[in-house]
């Protein structure tokens, strides 16, 4: 494969790998042993096909890929904005809930103290506060 040069008239394939690894022995190691020689290459080169894709098709594929990438970038930006907005909303909700929690906690503590004081005898309460 190192010594392979494509024909100048363009009739043969340009890639020496395609010349040697033809579809004749699919799944087998075609390069194993002494099977590949300089005489073997021209025989295989005449039977292989060279595929050429028209420029219009390639341009259409490139445009399609470009459109998809811009769509993905736009979607990523939208997701980032949504993420930041949701994060800010969650922080605000968390702060509000924690404030409510502490208010309820303080109120419950005061209610418990009031019930305990109401159950105690009046002379004990007077001694406690004086």
Elements, N to C (H/E)? HHHH
Put simply, the count of helices is: 4
Q: Give the tally of structural domains.
A: 2
Radius of gyration: 41 Å
- What structural class do you assign from the helix and strand content? mainly alpha
Beta-strand share of residues = under 5%
Low-confidence blocks of residues = none
Overall residue-averaged pLDDT value? 79
As a percent range, the share of helical residues equals 55-70%
Topology, number of strands: 0
Q: Main beta sheet: strand number and arrangement?
A: none
User: Distance between the terminal alpha carbons, to the nearest Å?
Assistant: 105 Å
Rough outline = rod-shaped
Summarize the structure.
With 130 residues, the protein is mainly α. The protein has 4 helices and no strands.
What does this protein structure show overall?
With 130 residues, this protein is an all-alpha fold. It has four helices and no strands. The chain has helices at 16-20, 40-47, 55-119, 122-129. The mean pLDDT is 79.
Topology:
Blueprint: H1 16-20, H2 40-47, H3 55-119, H4 122-129
Question: Which structural traits does this protein have?
Answer:
single chain; 130 residues; mainly alpha; 2 domains; 4 helices; rod-shaped
């Amino acid at each position: 494969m190192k010594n392979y040069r494509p024909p100048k008239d363009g009739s043969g394939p340009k890639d020496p790998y395609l010349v040697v690894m033809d579809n004749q022995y699919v799944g087998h190691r075609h390069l194993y042993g002494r099977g590949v020689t300089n005489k073997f290459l021209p025989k295989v080169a005449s039977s292989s096909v060279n595929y050429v894709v028209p420029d219009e098709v390639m341009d259409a594929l490139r445009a399609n890929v470009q459109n998809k990438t811009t769509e993905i970038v736009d979607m990523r930006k939208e997701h980032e904005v949504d993420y930041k907005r949701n994060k800010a909303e969650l922080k605000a909700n968390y702060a509000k809930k924690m404030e409510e929690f502490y208010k309820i906690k303080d109120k419950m503590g005061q209610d418990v103290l009031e019930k305990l004081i109401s159950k105690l005898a009046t002379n004990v309460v007077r001694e406690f506060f004086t």
